[in-house]
Amino acid sequence: MGQGKATDVQVKEVSVSFEPVQFRAPLKFGGRIVSSSYLINAEVTVESHSGKHATGHGSMPVGNVWAWPSATLEPHQTEQLMMAYSRSVVDLFDTYPGFGHPLEIEFEVSTEYEHQARRLCESKGVGETIPPLARMVCASPIDAAVHDAYGRMLKLNSFNTLSKEFCKTDLGEFLDSQFAGEYLDKYTSREPVPTLPLYHLVGAMDPLTEADVKDRPADKLPVTLGEWIKADTLTHLKIKLAGDQLDWDVDRVLAIEKVTAQAQAERGCAAWFYSCDFNEKCQSADYVIEFLNRIRKSSPGAFDRIQYIEQPTSRNLDAENAPKMHEVAKIKPVVIDEALVSYESLLQARELGYSGIALKACKGQTESLLMAAAAQKFGMFLCVQDLTCPGASFLHSCSLAARIPGVAAIEGNARQYCPSANQKWAKKLPTLFNVKNGTIDTSRLAGPGLGFQ
User: Fold this and answer.
1) What is the pLDDT of residue 29?
2) Cβ contacts of residue 297 below 8 Å, gap of 6+?
3) Diameter of the chain by CA atoms?
4) Residue 80 forms beta bridges with which residues?
5) Do 225 and 317 have their domain in common?
6) Residue 39 CB neighbour total at 10 angstroms
7) Residue 396 in contact with residue 194, Cβ under 8 Å?
8) Statement to judge: residues 202 and 144 lie in one domain
9) How confident is the model over 357-389, as pLDDT tens digits?
10) Same domain, 227 and 273
11) Is 1 contained in some domain?
12) pLDDT averaged per 10 residues in sequence order, the chain, 453 residues
């Protein structure tokens, strides 16, 4: 890498802790039900050449059911292994000797992630290793904390420390020669957008009407879809689908359209949007095309409201029969999510016909910024997705979405499934947790570091 900068820092101290999160209502995806989780909370202290110190923070759910859907290990086992791996990533950062920009530090430390994962699993007698996506989730709060600390050190927002002034390495080295001479300031905004629409999740188990309600939690929060739309004046709905039950998937969207149309008419709203998430369960692109054709035939309005399709088929892009998405992308944008674990996987997805990417803070601040740059250069559809992120992890996701040009909306469903984990931060920044006119206020995400501490 290039010659050092006066603004470079060295990681001096790293720690992680784990905070249990109990769900208010169960969330089903990928065929599994989640009712509790843990937050990985990271704290990193960095030191400048002049001996000045600053401490940054990062937070992210373990998200093992999504990140590591193992066929041989139970969810409680993958959860414990991911937590152990997060502790081992602490050692990698703690022992990294160099000075650099957070992008450069993460880029170099991450070369050890796979080896560290293999060592951990072998030491515990586990017959498989932690997959790339799960490794990214485990490391993401530490990576975020380094970026946060760096910005605090300089008394600047971290998104404003991405230019040649601060980075000795251009994007050509992080990505490829197409990006030579470019830096991330070209692909990020200097100020956060003032507001972002919020995508509300309609889970496969979530009640649409009162007739669907089996257990109403003992709180004052909405339960049915109609209640949520009325309470938060929602305009964006993300629909979880089965992916292997075509009749059910079509009927679910049509039922959601019926309930939503009535709720929106009652409040005088004429424009709203859907995204459809199959959680990799579709066996082919033909399934998605048939799904879209049947929605269009039954309800042209519902079809028009579908903004994009999210990762319909397996994350295994290397499979010999990996489905091609070109024909689907002619109908609606198709975004890669679970399969997006590297620049190489993005290029691979483009060859398979994917036309957009889902950015997630749980894949790391560094990786998300690099993928956002690549997607913009290639003219791809951009969205920012959620890992049921409460508190600081949601705010990190919001900061990312508010600084990437072209992001249409932010997903945030912790307020539905684990709202108690939001309470501390909701008191500090209520406008980011209170949805108004279907949007959240992101204008306050301009402080030092990641913008919200």
Assistant:
1) 72
2) none
3) 67
4) none
5) yes
6) 22
7) no
8) no
9) 999 999 999 999 999 999 999 999 999 999 999
10) yes
11) no
12) 86 98 86 90 97 98 96 96 98 96 98 98 96 98 98 98 97 98 98 97 96 92 97 97 97 98 97 96 97 98 98 93 96 97 97 97 98 98 95 98 95 95 95 95 97 87
CATH number for the domain that contains residue 142: 3.30.390.10
The enclosing domain of 212 has a CATH number of 3.20.20.120
- Is residue 450 included in any domain, yes or no? no
Number of domains, the chain: 2
Same domain, yes or no: 171 and 202: no
For 138-157, the pLDDT digits (tens) are 999 999 999 999 999 999 99
Closest to 260 in 3D by CA, of 417, 438, 415, 387: 438
Strand partners, 427: none
Burial of 180 (0-12, 13-18, 19+ CB in 10 A): exposed
pTM strictly above 0.90: yes
Alpha helices, H only, 237-355 = 246-267, 285-298, 300-305, 326-329, 343-351
Predicted pLDDT at 9: 98
Q: How far is CA 156 from the centre of its chain?
A: 24
Residue 333: both structure tokens together: 């944008």
Residue range of the domain that includes 158: 9-187
Residue 55: strand pairing partners: 45
Structure tokens at 186: 């070209």
Where are the alpha helices (H) located in 23-160, listed in sequence order? 64-67, 75-94, 102-109, 113-123, 132-154
Instruction: Give the tens place of pLDDT for each residue, 248-267.
Output: 999 999 999 999 999 999 99
Identify the domain boundary among 142, 163, 187.
187
